[in-house]
Amino acid sequence: MADLRAALQRFEARYTMDVARLYAEHDEIEAQIAEEEYKLVPDDEEIKKKAEELRRRAEESAARAAEDAANALLDFAPTAEAKKAYHNLARIIHPDLALDADEKEKRHVLMAELNAAYSSGDQVRLNQLVNDYRNSPDLVSGETIGDEWTRAIRQIYQIKARFAALDAEEAEAEASELYGLRLKVEAEMAEGRDLLAQMAARTSVHIRKSQRRLENLKNVNQAQEEYVKEKFGMDIDDFRGQSQS
Prior knowledge:
The chain has about 240 residues and is mainly α. The protein folds into two domains: about 1-75 and about 195-245, no CATH class; about 80-120 and about 120-180, no CATH class. About 85% of the residues lie in helices and about 0% in strands. The radius of gyration is 30 Å and the shape is elongated. The chain starts with a helix and ends with a helix.
């Protein structure tokens, strides 16, 4: 599961840098186009609503792309909850507290898992490790039949709980849109095609077309403003206000 999680994180970083930022750029240009169209017919409520909606979408796309890019570049900043879970368990399971070599080895393995979960910001796994250790068969001392029975029950519980958690985590990951896109990209790659590069190329074409349309609309609006200024000596907004009164 750790391998799948790491693979999805790497894929998300590439998708953000190669494709998502272009989607955000295209959304921004489309918003500007709608705003230029509204300047041509400022009394059209439908065009006004369209411009407002596209502006909201552009702002959301830009914020999402910026957040994804920042997450891909910045190191994990642990939350207070993560710090508490980490320090509480690290204090209990530290290998130096082991009574024999076997126990020390187990603690080293658990400590490595704890460090990996903490460094990756996996709060779910941190909580899982705390719960696993709290119910660990190693915490049951004694050699009576009852002690052995308790240890066996705890061990079975741990194994079942871990498998259930892994199955749930894997199912959630595989149900995500990101996982589905990654599968498509891998299938295309097996055929010698780079799907993300194709998506980026198509979006770049749309950006260039939209940019030309935006420039044309800006030129039309500028020409209209210059005509009103030259003909009537007024700003176009004042001219429209006077025409409507």
